[in-house]
Each structure stands twice: as C-alpha cells, then as structure tokens.
C-alpha cells in the first residue's frame, strides 16, 4: 500500500471545524496509508474531536498564542519530524506556509513528489489580518517569499478555483488542477425548518438570515446589518442568526457595537462556535445564508459554507464574485449594495415556497457533484500520475 504524508493547514483532528484537507485525507486513508503531521499546542487546537486511520508524525510543541509565531518557533521541531517522515512516504500532500516550505525542500532532497493543496493566495490571506498598510505589505511580501519556493518545488498544485489557477499560471510554470471545495453529502441535506429551529432553540417565525463561520475582516457584514435595520423599519420582519468566531476578535466586537448602536438586538440571535455536526441544523433553521465576501481575496475561493447551504436546499445571498457563478447555477442571489440586498430579501420572502422547492431538488445535484467522496477520487487520479 502506498504511503501519503499529509502536512495540513492546522491540527485537523483538533480544530473546531474540519477543513478541506481533513475531508480529503480521511477519504484517502481508505486507499492509502496516511501519515499525518500533528501540531502540538497549536493555538487553534482543542481536545481531539475526530479521527481517521493514520500514522501520527509529531514533535514536542512550544505553545504560543500567535498563529504565525507558532510555526516560526516550532520550525526546527517540524523540520526534525519531517526529516524522518518524508523518506518513509511515497508522496507528500502539503497545505500550509512555513511547514510547506520545509516539506518541499525535504521532498526535493529525497526525490519524493509533492502536491501543494493551495486553497487561497496565502500572501493576501495572511495580510488580511492586519490593519496597517505597512504591516500588510511586510506580511504579504514575507509570506510570498515563503510560498513561492514551496510552489516552485512542488510536483503538482491543486487549487479550489479557476480564478486562482489563472493567477498562479501567471507566476509559475507547474501542472495545476482545479478541485473545488466540497460537502459531506450525508450530513448536509434538506430538513424541516420547524424541527431545525426547535433543535437549536431558535424562537422566531420571522424570515431569518444566517451569518456563520469566520466572522472576519475579509467580509463586509456592516451593509448587511444596515439592510436588515432598514427592512425592519419598513415592517418587513427579518432576523439574523450569527454563529461563528473571529480570529482577531475585534471585528466581531465591532459588529456587536454596531448592532447595539442601531438598537437591533431583538432581531439578532448570537451563538458561540458550534460543532460541525450541528451546522446542518443552523442552516436549515434559517431561510438563507449570507456570504458577504469582499472582492479580491475571496475571489479565488469556493467557500465551504456556500456549498453546504446549497446542499441543505437554502439560497445564498452573496456579493458579486465571478467564481461562485461558475460553479453554482441555482441558489445564488447576487447583491452589490444595500438596495439590491434588500430587494433580494424581499424577493425571497415573496417567492419562498417556490424557491424552497427548486433548491430542495437542486440539493441532490450539489451533494453528488461536490461530495467529498467525488472530490477525493479526483485527488486519487492526481496521486496516480505522480507516485
């Protein structure tokens, strides 16, 4: 049996939300021996939340709160762990920044193929956490100096979008495959709204919007809050459920202050981050997901939350991101400003029964084309070409 070494973007068995690499690696473990790099004392890790058959690759981690500093101070230990692991693997799948640089250098030394699962353009996503233009520039340039050689030394690159592939082809000459993000087709499927609201303790009969996942600076949530305020002033009863977390905390606190200033607390239902297994209930308890992404950075992605909402038969209100429209023909309601957002909400309210029926039927297509099982098979096809 061939052996695959996986370098994940975080501690995928302990992070609150199972990410793309977890879903792919857990399915690859049915066909390959998977060696999995752990990140002991990772700042985003909790107790073990999930598992799949694997061989642990670990080290004695130094705990620090800052994510970037964690990888720097633990780099010598990560290098030592990977120096032992890479020669034992038939191929390496890596999906990080500094650990990816280490992994690709070692893979090149030991003549092992390396696949970079490059889910977004890391220099931009890393810089997004900083407010200062100078800090953004330093982080962007510093991160690029790390990811570029990791990209260059990889045998193959996998990205989740055509936009990101087009961008990477302008800076590097490597085979690049597009494998979008997916959905757990068994967990995310249509369910009765009343039962879902009861399950999460949501006591409202109003049309309800969902903001979930990462509540952070790469989103423009403020216009959504203003729009909901204006809708309620027009006696169009709309609530918002907010369930998620903010990496920097300040953006979430800023939104809470804004909600209070607008005296909108009665229309807002906040929940702490929830286990992944409960998210289908939150999606089904609401009428529509809001994906208020800023243009630019997120243009390269196909966010899991959008696919999961469509799999549950729920429409998605989103900003005008070209990549989304390539993948999803039904269920997207595009807005560009507060007025078009409000018009979309009014249209959904007026035509809810028809829309719900159409999207419930469309759910089966989404769960087939974007299931993690289907996408893992595409990964297997790539592995067959490099091993």
UniProtKB/TrEMBL annotation:
<dbReference type="InterPro" id="IPR001296">
    <property type="entry name" value="Glyco_trans_1"/>
</dbReference>
<feature type="domain" description="Glycosyl transferase family 1">
    <location>
        <begin position="195"/>
        <end position="353"/>
    </location>
</feature>
<protein>
    <submittedName>
        <fullName>Glycosyltransferase</fullName>
    </submittedName>
</protein>
<dbReference type="GO" id="GO:0016757">
    <property type="term" value="F:glycosyltransferase activity"/>
</dbReference>
<dbReference type="Pfam" id="PF00534">
    <property type="entry name" value="Glycos_transf_1"/>
</dbReference>
<keyword id="KW-0808">Transferase</keyword>
<dbReference type="Pfam" id="PF13439">
    <property type="entry name" value="Glyco_transf_4"/>
</dbReference>
<dbReference type="InterPro" id="IPR028098">
    <property type="entry name" value="Glyco_trans_4-like_N"/>
</dbReference>
<feature type="domain" description="Glycosyltransferase subfamily 4-like N-terminal">
    <location>
        <begin position="20"/>
        <end position="186"/>
    </location>
</feature>
